[in-house]
Every structure is written in structure tokens, then in C-alpha cells.
UniProtKB/TrEMBL annotation:
GO terms for molecular function: oxidoreductase activity, acting on CH-OH group of donors. It comes from the Bacteria. This is Putative oxidoreductase, SDR family. InterPro entries: KR_dom, NAD(P)-bd_dom_sf, Sc_DH/Rdtase_CS, SDR_fam. Belongs to the short-chain dehydrogenases/reductases (SDR) family.
Length: 244
């Protein structure tokens, strides 16, 4: 089977590292992003030059159903239907207590981090055959709860964990595998969105391995779960959190 991967939120951070990791293993790559066209196009140029695989970028807000349907249709046209999906998109907002959160913020977190995973999986499954696979990107926050920082984000990742379990069971008889990674504290721009760019360094002394993680250390686990080497693995979770 020709392998074509879609990585949502794939233009930066863990998604970008995953795109490169999969390209190095011969996958055609579709990078989804939201607004930062320059970051996406720079990554596309790098992947085409470095790995000589087909690679495109498509802008779409994956929390929006109409845009998700268009994303998959455009991908069909430009690079071929998805065989491997990485539901990687994730947002968090300024650190605050639950008592300070309003509905707009909570709903934005949930639609981006959870609804998009449902919608992208639904569209992918219209195209997938036995042997195809999905990896969802959750977080250790689903275990810790992120008190005082972003409980809305942690709750969205709890939903991703349950979504992984349920979808994996629905699809197991069809030979389509669904797994999940739960990163801990990884050096990406997401922490600046929470208002604390230096968060990973602040927390590193509390991590058993005494350091934050690199995006590539998450990408390798995603790639393994997608690969045929994980052919008997479904509904499973890999925590990449330095022992947390
Ligand atoms: P990041 O560096 O902040 O990158 C976010 C990506 O998501 C960008 O490509 C961004 O595109 C895209 N995006 C944002 N909103 C979108 C939307 N509505 N539709 C489509 N794309 C959208 O993120 P990251 O840290 O690599 O995180 C990746 C995943 O890992 C997330 O699910 C996150 O929750 C999870 N995670 C991260 C950490 C960590 O420490 N970094 C820890 C645990 C879990 P634009 O730039 O165009 O907006």
C-alpha cells in the first residue's frame, strides 16, 4: 500500500517533527495548519528537498466541519486519499483557574482538541482500508488535570483518551488500528500560548528524567504506532513524559 499521512496541526512543534519522521520513512505527507502559511510552506519545501516524497500543506480550521470536509477532498485531489492519520492539533489558552474560565474559551478548547479528532477520523475512515491506522495525540495532562493552569485542556485530553479506546474497539474487526501518545513537557511554542514560554524549563526539575522532551522523541513513537511493526497494537497508549 502507498502510504499517505495527514498530520493535523502539522506545521510546527510535534506535528512538524512527525511529518519529517514519516517523510524519512517514505510516506507522502499532507500538513494541515490553521493560519501560519509561512511555517507550513517552509516545512513543505524542506521535506520535498530532503526526503523526495510528495508533500503538500492545506490550511483548514479542523474544529469546523465544513473545513474538515474540504481538507480531505483537497487532499484526495492533490496527493491522494489518506492512509494514516495523526490527530495532532491541540490548543491551550492563558493559564487560569476554572473559576475564571468563560464558555467561549472552554468551547474553543473542546472543539479544537476533541471535535476535530472525531471529524477528521470520520472523514479519514470513509477512505481507509484494512492496514490503515490512526494515532491521536493526547497529553499527560489527562492524568494530572493541570490544576491552576488549564483544566479545560486537561479535560479535552481525557476525552481524547476515551475517544481512542472507543474508536479502536469500533475499528478493530476491520483491521484499522487506533492508538494514542501522551507527551509530557515538550519544547514547542504551545507553552507561549499559555502565557509561559519557559514552562518546560521551570518544570524540568520535577520530571524524573530531569529534562523536557524534544518533538522528535514524540514523533518516533507516533511513527512506530502507525507502522506495520505495531500491527497487533490497538487501543494502546504510550506516555512520553520522562517518567512523569
Ligand atoms: P504547537 O507547536 O503549538 O503547534 C500547533 C499547531 O496546530 C500549528 O501547526 C497550528 O497551525 C495548528 N493549529 C492550531 N489551531 C488549529 C486549528 N484550529 N486547525 C488546524 N490547525 C491548527 O503545538 P505542539 O506543542 O506541537 O502540540 C501538538 C500536540 O501535542 C497537541 O495536541 C498538544 O496538545 C500535544 N501536547 C503537547 C505537549 C507539549 O509540551 N508541547 C505536551 C503534551 C501534549 P498555525 O501555526 O497555522 O496556527
Amino acid at each position: 500500500m502507498e502510504k499517505t499521512a495527514l498530520i493535523t496541526g502539522g506545521s510546527r512543534g510535534i506535528g512538524a517533527a512527525t511529518a519529517k519522521y514519516l517523510a524519512a520513512r517514505g510516506y507522502g505527507i499532507c500538513i494541515n495548519y490553521h493560519r501560519n502559511e509561512q511555517a507550513a510552506e517552509t516545512l513543505v519545501a524542506h521535506i520535498r528537498e530532503q526526503f523526495s516524497v510528495p508533500c503538500i500543506a492545506i490550511a483548514a480550521d479542523v474544529s469546523d466541519e465544513t473545513q474538515v470536509v474540504r481538507l480531505f477532498a483537497e487532499m484526495d485531489e492533490l496527493i491522494g486519499p489518506v492512509t494514516h492519520l495523526v490527530n495532532n492539533v491541540g490548543v491551550l489558552f492563558k493559564q487560569m483557574k476554572v473559576t475564571e474560565m468563560d464558555a467561549e474559551r472552554i468551547n474553543k478548547t473542546l472543539t479544537t482538541n476533541v471535535t476535530s479528532y472525531f471529524l477528521c477520523s470520520r472523514e479519514a475512515l470513509k477512505r481507509m482500508q484494512p492496514g490503515c491506522a490512526i494515532v491521536n495525540v493526547s497529553s499527560v495532562a489527562s492524568r494530572t488535570g493541570s490544576a491552576g493552569e488549564y483544566v479545560d485542556y486537561a479535560a479535552s485530553k481525557g476525552a481524547v483518551d476515551v475517544f481512542t479506546r472507543g474508536l479502536s474497539l469500533e475499528l478493530a474487526p476491520q483491521g484499522i488500528r487506533v492508538n494514542c501518545v501522551r507527551p509530557g513537557f515538550i519544547y514547542t511554542d504551545i507553552h507561549a500560548d499559555g502565557g509561559e514560554p519557559g514552562r518546560v524549563d521551570r518544570i524540568s526539575s520535577q520530571i524524573p528524567m530531569l529534562r523536557g522532551g524534544q518533538p522528535e522523541e514524540v514523533a518516533s513513537a507516533i511513527a512506530w504506532l502507525l507502522s506495520d511493526e505495531a500491527s497487533y497494537v490497538t487501543g494502546s497508549f504510550i506516555d512520553l513524559a520522562g517518567g512523569r
